[in-house]
Write a sequence for this structure.
């Protein structure tokens, strides 16, 4: 068993999109900066984008995740 | 009662090549950790604060006003259960009473595998696939988002996370490849222990 080296979220930006709060978290993978995006509303907290190579891509894919979510629950 | 993030029950690289060190580091240290922290922040100061997390999950599963708390509680619990549903040098087939019961309730181990793979692959969007004891019968179920079988009176025996964050780094959008990989590390001893304790 290995001791957890818990790397809590390193939030770089947070904003609201269609009623969801999108939060970008910065991490490092093999020496490269990568981003995850969380999507939160009153009912759900989800890792909308697990890994993205840039803020732009993370934001774009997080918005797409929310759009799909809204479409599937309409 | 705060819920502590448990350490992984094995080394971060112990499940390679099926589940990578990078995936476990991100999945456990960031994603699971965030759910635990969000749960603790949300439950603190409420009437539920003194209860074990399993009781909180059951108590608020049908309360739409508590869906945010439920989401984080269930995700915190589900991930802990998921870590124990895998172990190094595992996979293969169960033995003993669990093997007999799978044979009896599914017809064969191969039919169980087909059902489990199908549940994981067809869970739309984010969720979980489970082997559960429902009454006295083993069943495969799938649940969306954070939902878990505790809320429907079933006893979870083992689970597979099919949220994208569980496999994207290793398998991109190839969820079926991840499901095959999971079955290479599935911890039948854990499932057998849960069956024996049910």
């Amino acid at each position: 068993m290995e001791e957890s080296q818990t790397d809590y979220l390193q939030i770089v930006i947070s904003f609201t999109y269609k009623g969801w709060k999108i939060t970008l978290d910065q991490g490092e993978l093999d020496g490269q900066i990568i981003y995850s995006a969380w999507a939160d509303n009153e009912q759900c907290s989800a890792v909308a984008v697990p890994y993205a190579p840039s803020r732009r891509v993370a934001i774009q894919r997080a918005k797409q995740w929310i759009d799909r979510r809204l479409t599937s629950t309409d | 009662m705060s819920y502590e993030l448990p350490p992984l029950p094995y080394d971060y690289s112990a499940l390679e090549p099926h589940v990578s060190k990078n995936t476990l580091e991100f999945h456990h240290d960031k994603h699971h950790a965030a759910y635990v922290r969000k749960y603790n922040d949300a439950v603190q100061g409420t009437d539920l604060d003194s209860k074990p997390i399993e009781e909180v999950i059951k108590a608020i599963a049908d309360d739409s006003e508590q869906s945010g708390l439920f989401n984080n509680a269930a995700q915190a619990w589900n991930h802990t259960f998921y870590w124990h549903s895998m172990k190094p040098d595992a996979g293969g087939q169960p033995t003993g009473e669990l093997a007999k019961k799978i044979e009896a309730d599914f017809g064969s181990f191969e039919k169980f595998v087909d059902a489990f793979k199908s549940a994981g692959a067809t869970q739309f969007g984010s969720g979980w696939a489970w082997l559960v004891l429902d009454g006295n019968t083993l069943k495969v179920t799938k649940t969306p988002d954070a939902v878990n079988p505790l809320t429907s009176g079933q006893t979870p025996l083992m689970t597979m996370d099919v949220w994208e964050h569980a496999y994207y780094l290793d398998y991109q959008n190839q969820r079926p490849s991840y499901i095959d990989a999971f079955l290479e590390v599935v911890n039948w001893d854990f499932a057998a222990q849960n069956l024996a304790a049910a």
Observations:
- Chain A has one domain: 11-72.
